[in-house]
Design goal:
The chain has 330 residues and is an alpha+beta fold. It has 6 helices and 15 strands. The strands form 5 sheets. It has a 5-stranded antiparallel β-sheet with strand order 1-2-3-5-4, covered by helices on one side. The protein has a 4-stranded antiparallel β-sheet with strand order 6-7-13-8. The longest helix is centred in the C-terminal third of the chain and has 21 residues.
Amino acid sequence: MNTFGKYITLTTFGESHGPAMGGILDGMPSLVKIDLAEIDRQTERRAPGRSALTSQRREPDKAEILSGITADGLTLGTPIGFIVRNRDARSGDYAGYQGRFRPNHADYTYYTKYGINDFRGGGRASARETVSWVIGGAIVRQWLSAMGIEIAAEFIETNSVEDAKNSLDSTGGAVRCVISGMPAGIGEPVFEKLHSRLAAAMMGINAAKAFEYGDGRDMSAMRGSECLDLFGEEIEGRPGVYRFLTNHSGGILGGISNGMPINFTVYFKPTPTIMQDVPSVDTDGHRVVINPKGRHDPCVAMRAVPVVEAMAALTVADMIKGASRKGSQY
């Protein structure tokens, strides 16, 4: 599917080496003030070529808003359409991949599903696709910010990225994210748990391999007495709403937010395209050797930070709007 969300939806289109990437964000409330410069700041964080340790593809990643936002930055409540033109695609760098499957890449599975090998930068399997997610997230997080909800993530280096790059190799990494200011009561009790929706969003990011929230897997080695989140004082002005003395549960209980900061970590695999000869097979079943070229990130997790934030924003905004439509009191 190419659409994310239920009440606030993002539909995306485009290929890595096509004319443009783009999307339609639908369901945003009207009269929300949007700082258009903030959208550019977010895409700049994700853009390639800003560091010696990322892909040297140089893309301005300037969002062109086509509909749904007035010239002075007010949402109309109608679909927000946008595109980002691809300026620095070099499809010739990928000519040696034509008909050849890069191990650990989506080349093979896309071919088995669609019967065509779009070797130009990976097509929609490329992380280039995430520029549209960041734009959508940059819009909805301004609505969330007006409610006092803020989202911040950070890159966690698990191996030396510089060493991996100098060795013509790649490495994995992790991104930790915190959502603060969340009201209690967001999330559904069974199949639409807040943490399951966040997990689905994060695991949809290119190269994501694991997700955990709160103390995560460490809780499997704890005793119950070690990870109880005990009640603290009532929050001033909010009778019956409490702070907790600890936050082992990561701000979510029974699939529903409890008012504490929501924290989670996403783990990313190494970039599958490495600058070394790699044995593989082609679409005719022949054994081949791939001699990689092109511009690739030695660690995709570094540029995934704004993507994680964007998907968290889209998830939370969608669930908050869904709760308000259902008349939930949160």
